[in-house]
Amino acid sequence: MTQYPEEFIERLHLVWGTGFLSPGGGEEVARIVRGLDLKDARVLDVGCGTAGPAITLAREFGARMTCIDVEEPVVARARQLVAAQGLEDRIDIRLTAPGPLPFEADSFDVVFSKDAILHIPDKPAFFADVLRVLRPGGAFAASDWLAGPDAAANPAFRRYQELGHLDFAMASAAETEAAMRAAGFRDVTTTNRAGWYADMAAREVDAIAGPLREDIIRIAGEQVLARWLETRRALRDAVRTQGLCPTHLRATGPG
Ligand SMILES: C[S@@+](CC[C@H](N)C(=O)[O-])C[C@H]1O[C@@H](n2cnc3c(N)ncnc32)[C@H](O)[C@@H]1O
């Protein structure tokens, strides 16, 4: 059963821009990889969505992208958007099964991911696998949605999880850092982006209730709109109260 059917992709594109199933667009992608030289680098994007991040990394940074995602409608849309940009020679989109990364050891210079690791329950296994596919001294640069330290007691965070239809396995920053270090990563850092996203999430609620309302009703109907607004209000409040924290993750593999 897909978690990202076509109509949900359309709604997310309305709010976050065509090609993006997460907030911030190309500017946020650029902040995630800040300081890395990606010219002709072999970059793996885990949970590539509809390829907005990959298109940014290929076009603006010259990366050679291999992108994986587990959802058929998402992959189909990603391929369309990549073809529309004429970037098929720089971006390879693959439909994969959840689980171990289907690549040989030492296949990539950089592993990138934007707001997708929250769908992967076994973080220690995931980070060990990322390190395996990275070349020695390669970089891991990602964003993920993490649970704040008091998330379990945060009513908005709990409400968001109840209302949303997505399978989330959100870890805390401490758990994520521990999993990266246990895998063998060095220079591990996490940077909380809740302050940045809080304002944007509030504006998104206003847009869904206002200028985007009719388009969303056309795509998904009134009932979906009503429930989505409730979900998005809970998300806004969870981010504002640091129950849910979009967070940048950086680390380097041993050289
Ligand atoms: C919130 S979306 C983000 C997509 C994209 N990175 C972006 O920022 O627009 C999360 C994506 O992760 C994908 N996903 C879920 N579980 C996955 C897994 N085990 N491996 C790879 N991708 C996964 C989903 O299909 C979805 O496209």
Q: Can you describe what's shown?
A:
This protein is an alpha/beta fold. It has a single domain (6-148, 165-193, 242-252), classed as Rossmann fold, CATH 3.40.50. 45% of the residues lie in helices and 21% in strands. The chain is built from ten helices and seven strands. The chain has helices at 6-16, 25-32, 52-61, 72-84, 123-133, 155-163, 173-183, 194-209, 213-220, 222-240, and strands at 42-46, 64-69, 91-95, 108-114, 134-147, 186-192, 244-252. It has a seven-stranded mixed sheet, with helices on both faces. Strand 4 (108-114), helix 5 and strand 5 (134-147) form a beta-alpha-beta unit. Helix 2 packs across helix 3. It is globular, with a radius of gyration of 18 Å.
Summarize the structure.
With 255 residues, this protein is of the alpha/beta class.
Compute the separation of the termini in Å.
41 Å
The proportion of residues forming helix, as a percent range, comes to 40-55%
For this structure, the CATH topology is: Rossmann fold
Query: What is the number of helices?
Result: 10
**β content, as a range?**
15-25%
State the name of the first-level CATH class: Alpha Beta
The structure class reads alpha/beta
Mean pLDDT over the full residue set: 97
Largest sheet: 7 strands, mixed
Work out the radius of gyration. 18 Å
Query: Which ligands are bound?
Result: S-adenosylmethionine
Which CATH-level-2 architecture?
A: 3-Layer(aba) Sandwich
Number of strands: 7
* Shape estimate: globular
Q: Could you name the ranges where pLDDT drops below 50 across 5 or more consecutive residues?
A: none
Order of helices and strands: HHEHEHEEHEHHEHHHE
The total number of structural domains is 1
The CATH superfamily turns out to be: Vaccinia Virus protein VP39
The largest sheet has its strands arranged as 3-2-1-4-5-7-6
